[in-house]
Design brief:
The chain is α+β, with helices and mostly antiparallel strands and 155 residues long. It has four helices and six strands; from the N terminus they run E-H-E-E-E-E-H-H-E-H.
Length: 155
């Protein structure tokens, strides 16, 4: 039996017009943490997996490849349910980055708690939407949501 995990993950950068240094750091951390430890088990496939995340027609496309890079499948999810959470996450992250640069530790902690709450809600929604398609643990879903947000940068 194969390993139910991601060994490589990429984002389709064609839809991303610009990334701030803060967002780029979030992306790097999410990918590093994801590759360090994750549970990712697509139905009907054995891993480990190489994954490409992309957006097509307002849907998330998760391209799955085997360890050697051969295409296995593409799982698609509608993104409409995530719009509010993505918007809220961007707003809270922006507040967090500003707070880190100039606010009190108490204010930073308050904003970080709000950021984690949105992140956790989005991770639970992602796990729910993936049910029956891809089994993930909570931490993997959180990191995948961060990467989904990065795909939505259009500034």
């Amino acid at each position: 039996m194969g390993e139910a995990r991601i060994i490589d993950i990429d984002l389709d950068d064609r839809t991303i017009l610009w990334r701030s240094a803060d967002v780029e750091q979030e992306r790097k951390i999410a990918i590093f943490d994801l590759l360090e430890g994750n549970h990712f088990n697509p139905a009907g496939h054995e891993g480990p997996f190489r994954v490409l995340l992309r957006v097509e027609d307002n849907r998330l496309a998760i391209d799955l490849k085997d360890e050697a890079g051969a295409a296995l499948d593409t799982v698609r999810l509608g993104l409409a349910r995530f719009r509010r959470l993505i918007r809220d996450y961007f707003a809270i992250c922006d507040s967090y980055y500003k707070a880190v640069r100039s606010d009190t530790p108490h204010r930073i902690e308050s904003v970080d708690m709000a950021r984690r709450a949105v992140h956790n809600e989005a991770a639970e929604l992602l796990r729910e939407c993936l049910q029956g398609k891809i089994e993930t643990d909570f931490d993997t879903a959180r990191r995948l949501f961060t990467l989904i947000c990065v795909l939505h940068i259009r500034r």
